[in-house]
Amino acid sequence: MRNYFGSGQLQSYLIFWRKEDNRKLIKARYFVEEDGSTSFEPKSNVIQVSELLTTVPKLLEGDALKAEYNYVPRSQMFSWNQAKLPEHKTKNRYGNLLPYDNTRVILKKESPGDTDYINANFIDGYKKAGRYIAMQGPIDATIEDFWRCVWQFKCHQIVILTNLEESGKSKCEKYWPEMSQFYGKIKVSMTKTELFADYTIRHFLLERDHDSLVVVQYHFLSWPDHMVPMYACTLISFINCIRSSSLYQEDNSPMVVHCSAGIGRTGAFIVIDSMLRMAEKEKKIDVFGHFCKVRQQRINMVEKFAQYRFVYQVLLEALSHDPTDISCIDFATYLDRQTKGSDKTCLLYKQYEILNTMSLCKLPSEVCKFGMVNYQFNRRADVVPPDYARVILPNLNDYVNAVYVNGYRKQDAYIVTQIPFENNRQQFWKMIASTQANLIVLLNEASGDEQVYWPSSVNQRLVVDDELSVSLQKEDLSQHIIVRTFVLKPAETIVKQVQLRGFQSLLGKYSPTASSYSLIELKEKLDAGNMAGSSAPLVVQCTDGVQLSGLFCAADFIFERIKEEQQIDVFLAVQKIRANRPQFITSYWAKKCNVLAYFEAIKALVGNKNKQNIIGCKRRIAHSVIKNTLQQQQS
Known about the structure:
Layout: E1 10-19, E2 25-33, E3 38-40, E4 47-48, H1 52-61, H2 64-71, E5 104-106, E6 117-125, E7 128-135, H3 143-152, E8 157-160, E9 165-166, E10 169-170, E11 180-183, E12 186-195, E13 199-208, E14 211-220, H4 232-243, H5 246-250, E15 255-258, H6 264-282, E16 284-285, H7 287-297, H8 305-319, E17 326-327, H9 331-338, H10 347-357, H11 369-373, E18 402-405, E19 414-418, H12 425-435, E20 439-442, E21 461-463, E22 469-477, E23 481-489, E24 493-500, H13 503-508, H14 512-528, E25 538-542, H15 547-565, E26 567-568, H16 570-578, H17 588-595, H18 599-607, H19 611-617, H20 623-634
Parallel strand pairs: 7-15, 8-14, 8-15, 19-25, 20-24, 20-25
Antiparallel strand pairs: 1-2, 2-3, 4-16, 5-6, 6-7, 9-10, 11-12, 12-13, 13-14, 17-26, 18-19, 21-22, 22-23, 23-24
């Protein structure tokens, strides 16, 4: 009798029942081969992409998903005799997580001291054998072997899913140089580094014997060991970046994927990427089927159930709506198409509904304990910072209603906060001093003395405590913007407050074009004076820390991406800023009329329409981007 995964005689098989926490019995069928290895009968669960929104949420809520995961054995399935050899012991990070002999990566022996061993396996992708090389994170003894592997198999893309150190433990050696370095016979030179909020991209040139190889490393920074990223959208934007590269699309060489052990995060990434490719080609996915396959090729791939569940969540979020990442040159056509029809039937409204299903409407109270206890300092009972992202003051009363929000390139790019009450202004200024913030963007008119938390006349001094005081040095007024300069003593720190006048009234009058130009003017003011160039977070403030602050953060995220990539993705921007403050942009009108509205200016410039009106308003957004877009269109 032939087994399921190779030739040879079947020694015996076992049928047993595994008792789960929910007290159900899961039936599994394992096959024990003559050599003692274990295999199993693979299964599938094919889901059409068109049915993801109705099928996957039910799967995530019920017991069927846990049954899928537990069906596939976690133990060693095949022999790993080569990995167990004494001379290879020092090349394994973990003694019980070794590569199977039948799928292991075999290196060429080029010198007398070389070995053909590396803790890595070939893993199949969608209809492509050996699409990935899944390996452990290099240790000091295997760094040269790692680069030998990359060179031998002409691997143009490396995906790293671990930090070098996590929870005080080494998870991966830093195997790349900051400039140039030889690893054995291979010279590795870093040619470029790109920093983003959740990941870093490093470009390398490998050289050996008058030959060269271009390699790009994609380093995701927000995936805890044995767990999952907090938000699926962060991983989706990372994967989209990888998949949009010409190196990925050529698809002629294996992609190296590793975390620390090279099984949990690595396995989840490989299943996600393979299913995205399957969805492209066949408009369906089969996570269960591919999970069965990768578990046969490397031990315990997708190590934890939470990671398996996360695979489905990512695919649901990535595939349940049309692409939202649009080039500037195509945005005018895209916007017209999205807004065609009535408000409740147009594509934009449907996109907004999907966005809301992908985001929390409110953070659970158990992660907002400090904010709930200090309820008297919150302007809105439903707007409370989560404990894991709140700004913590360095004093006994450490609470302030302020939350860190990621930007386009920087983690914690913004501190979003409400206008303080009269009785906790001191806490606000202590936050400014302790975070070393030097720029405040105020998006409201301050209504009455109760909301004016700063010294209102030049040289007036506000005493915060025995050590800290704030003085107004000067105030510059223009039609739409007021810039105030404060001095914080005793450190003599200069802090600027940029207040946008009339923004809220423009929104109330349903004047999206005027409000969009106000945002553009504010952004230009910040950029022109390099006000936001500091490494410190930008403090964004409105009355409740939500309505206008959310619009600014989304707009700023989009502006920055336009300047860097000439791409626009409002869906992604709103998802990302909502991560720590779900109440951002919870009105459809806010999304349609106030976040997207300023793209009418881009649309007009790109299409060369209404140019005189735009020039007359003296509002410009990213002049170099618009110029570049026009040149592309003309060519």
